[in-house]
Structures are given as structure tokens and as C-alpha cells.
Design a protein that fits this description.
This protein is α+β, with helices and mostly antiparallel strands. Helices cover about 35% and strands about 25% of the residues. It contains 8 helices and 12 strands. Helix 5 packs antiparallel against helix 6. The model has no long low-confidence stretch (mean pLDDT about 85).
Length: about 240
Amino acid sequence: MVASGVWAGDIPLERAHSLQEIGPDRRTMKQELERIGYLGEANASYQTMPLGGPQLQANNRKIGIVHGVQAYGWHTITVKGHDCHTGTTDFVNRADALLCAAKMILHSHRLAVKYEALASTGIIKSSPGSTNTVPGWVQFSLDIRASRDDVLLDMEEHLKSDFDKIAKGDYVNGLNDDLGVFGRPCTTEWTLDAPSRAIRFDSSCINSVRQSADDVLGHRSKDLVQDMISGAAFLPADGARPQ
């Protein structure tokens, strides 16, 4: 995505090169490109990724014709409670930030199903990071996606409202009640890291890919081609994990 942004003129090359990894080494993208020998002068290149492979394989299709890209929002959610000792602090007197964050992550999945959208968490950080200390600070990533901008915005507002209720101990689909004991409230903060609106590809590009699929597959194309959201073409890759 960064490379595509640079090629399209949306992301300055210097900014892309200076992006740092989330790991402890904090190496930049330019350093890693140099390390693997991929820092070059080419203005454009082709990239092959098995993004649609699992869907195509599950439906016994050979080519996926992509009609567009989902709207998405990448967020960082910060949950604040209070550090306390696990042995001397009972549940009623805990403001457990990690437990609160876990409820939010579970709820984001449930709500995404309701909206026929997607929600995922790939990064979780907690502090102070001790076996016998209840975390008082947690930060997690939240990637939410939908096929339409209005659906994404509605789901985002719904999640913000529900996360606030979860942190306060209010009723949200039984998340606080099912545990028997709630404890003390936490607080939440949202940071929008990267927004992106839904994109519908030009019909001529879609038709061009479809015609190419017809040329490759012939009379079988009707049974082996699948329309997809996410002009591009997806191809299945044996044994490949979703990317």
C-alpha cells in the first residue's frame, strides 16, 4: 500500500522511506529495502499477492475480477485503568484495562458481523507487563472495513459509543454482566491512524480484466471467474495464507 501510494503521488518518497517498524529495533523501510537489495530506481512494478486466494479456492474459481477497494479505518484504542497487585486486589476493586480491552475486541467482531463488515486487532500492548500486576494501561489496533463509506462510519460511531459503555460498566450485549463482577471503570481514547474511502474501479478496467479472463479460460470462464470487492485480478495460490 505504501509503494502504491508513492507511485500514485499520494505519499512522498521520503516519508515512505522513513516509516519505522513497530518492533523494538525501529528500523526504517529504507533500511530494510537496502538490507534485502530491493532499494532501486524503478518507477513502477508488478506485485503478486494471494489476497483473494482462499475465497477463490473455496468457490472453485480460477480468477477473481476486482470491482473496487473497501473503505477502511485504522485506529489505535487506548484503555486506561489502574495498576494493582493480582493477589491483594479483589475483582470489585480492579480497573483492569486488559480485561476491558478484551471485551472491546470481542464486541468489535460481533458488531462487524451485524454490519456485514470486518473488524480485526493485530497489535496489543499492555503496561506495566508483570505477571502479578493487573495492567492499568492497554493500547490495541483496530482495523475496521466495509464495502461502503456510510456503513463504515455508522459502525465506527456505534463502536465508539459501545466502547465507552463497556469501559463504564454499562450493559452491552451482556459483556459486563456475564462475568458476575464488574469492578471499577476505565476510560478509552481513539486515534485515527489511517482513513481510506471506498473506491469503485472504472468499468472499462473491469471489462478489460474480464475480457482477458475470457481469453485465458475460453468457454469455461463463466464457471471459473468470480466478481470480488477489494482494474485488478486475483489468482489463487496453492498453500498460500491470506495476506
